[in-house]
Amino acid sequence: MQAIKPNGLPMLIGSLPLEDHKKGLEWVFKYSPYIPLWVQLPKRPFEGMISQFMDSLPGYTFKSGKEFIDTATPVFQEEMVSFYEEYMGIVEGKIDIKDSRFKLNRQRAAGFYHLVDRLSQMNNLDNVSAIKGQITGPITFATAVKDADGRAIFYDLQLRDMAIKHLTMLSAYQVSILSQFNKPVIIFLDEPALAGFGSSEFISISREDVLSAFSEIIDYLHTKNVLVGIHVCANTDWSLVFDSGADILSFDAYSYFDKLVLFKDKLKDFLTQGKFIAWGIVPTNANYIEKETFDNLYTKFMTQLNTMEEQTGISTSQIITNTFITPSCGAGSLNIELAQKVLSITHDMYKAVLKI
Prior knowledge:
two-stranded antiparallel sheet; 356 residues; 13 helices; alpha/beta; six-stranded parallel beta sheet
């Protein structure tokens, strides 16, 4: 795995409330120049976190304003066979992923190609510590995507398997392109649905189902020398993230720090292994960020940092070494003024942490 020491580096989650990708990149390189990422603009058609990665699945159908997987189409079986043949060809090194069906759609993932163009045009990347890509996580994706009958594809073993392999390859495609810049690559799995694990809605999803889905993607990306993060923007059973094989745990520290430190033994093991925390101390809830100040958030962060030292026995200096400072979630649902406030405070937190 490529070495990186975050030391509080600012890192963004992904979504912004803009409609112009060039403007989005201006924000990225102003507030998170050390770990640039491609941005998702949900105000644009098909840039929602599900739609963005859906269209190359076998059976993809857009009808009456809805997207779903239709297994009853005459060509579905043929598409499925082609899907698996191409997947195996890439895994076995017989097909170049850059020329495959798993290329990110230029319309739906325009932010990715804008980032690549921007990095290609830069004279040097000396200030860049890593480059971040992202994908919707397998639990969120496969429980949100429906078949023609409105049933989540997660509950169909064949469709679930395809979805996991599909997300694996879409992630690997990002890695194949971003690796050209000779910087560590970070891929995040965004998993808001994991907050529902154990609830009545997901009662039939087992712990083994979740960990199996994660491990298939993470294990493959690790063969590509990639750091993998899992982002959950609410509370969950954090042992799922700790046990997933992920390198970075990304969480809403503003609202759920007290829930995370309940897993103090696993947290200690995680950090002792040299893994990382993406500390979402800057809230992206409009009601919270509107009233918050940098000083309040910095005080809150320092209190949390000291608590983590007490709970794990790991020094604050070592914790900071293994910490990225982030917003609690994407800023795509905020207005422009509040989104800029989130990004600005995130960057200012990094500058303050440097002085600790």
